[in-house]
Design brief:
The protein has twelve helices and 14 strands. The chain starts with a helix and ends in a 6-residue tail after the last helix. The longest helix has 16 residues. It is α/β, with parallel strands linked by helices. The chain has a six-stranded mixed beta sheet, with helices on both faces. Strands 2-1-4-5 form a four-stranded antiparallel beta sheet. Bound molecules: adenosine-5'-triphosphate (ATP). Adenosine-5'-triphosphate binds next to strand 2 and helix 2.
Amino acid sequence: MDTAASEPVLSVREVRKHYGAFQAVNGVSFAVAPGECFGLLGPNGAGKTTTIHMIYGFSPATSGSIHVFGQDIRTGFRRIRAQLGICQQGNTLDPDLSVLENLLVFAGYFGIPRREAEIRANELLAFFALEAKKRFQYAELSGGMARRLMLARAIINRPRLLILDEPTTGLDPQSRNTLWDRLLDLKRQGLTILLTTHAMEEAERFCDRLCIIDHGQVAAEGEPARLVAAHAGSHALEVESPEAAMAEHLAAAGVRFDRSGRRLIVYGPDKAALVALRERFCAESGFIRAATLEDVFLRLTGRELRE
Ligand code: ATP
């Protein structure tokens, strides 16, 4: 077996970040294999950005260890940084530069010679459908174009690991889909990707594996479909403001259910049992749907991802 190939690209062990008495990240561990797309999924304030800030050297961990490409970030950060691509949550493009110049200047930080930088920049502008905008200033771009340019800039150094902090937050559905298509292309090319998101659809669509993070801790880790099967089953019966008799029946029968606001949600591996419950208690208002990651989150934390 080729141990070098199977060695994790990223290994995070028992990492903590404290701001005074506040514990933003509280003992997070996970590993990302080569070619894998790994997600950190959690609500606002869960500690996702803080975790990746520590991975890409933006702020040091209070304790724990982080290895990227097998090297400790405390000692090998310069070598590691040269092979990282980072796309931050906020817009960090230079407003005084054109689209093309944003890419060329950034390439300069990695010591990429000018001619090579121009070749790469033009390839990336084509890949991200920004060729027609290459002389535009950043202020003349739409939000979706700016995000594509951020992503193009993040990979101009041909990184081995791409880190994306909420890549599609704030984009309209069309821009989000365009960006997702490009990300899927990069994934198919074998790029290892770490992304944070609070969008369930993004996590299910991209992530081979993910960690659900809440209050700075890992609530669950695994392949999205396995997490759903293990924690929520295959289907859920959802009903708005059910009669008290329904909850009483479920409690007496020892069937677990969750509440979210006025909604009551029953999960089950057995759809027929849910259909029977609906017929009995909520034939009009209840509906049965496939179980999702959001259900997993609700089950594990008692809260919804959407906040
Ligand atoms: P979002 O989805 O909103 O980006 P997140 O999961 O990325 O959320 P973080 O940005 O990592 O969450 O924040 C985790 C917690 O740490 C929050 O309560 C935040 O207020 C706190 N926090 C982050 N940075 C600092 C800081 N510099 N000083 C004090 N507290 C901080």
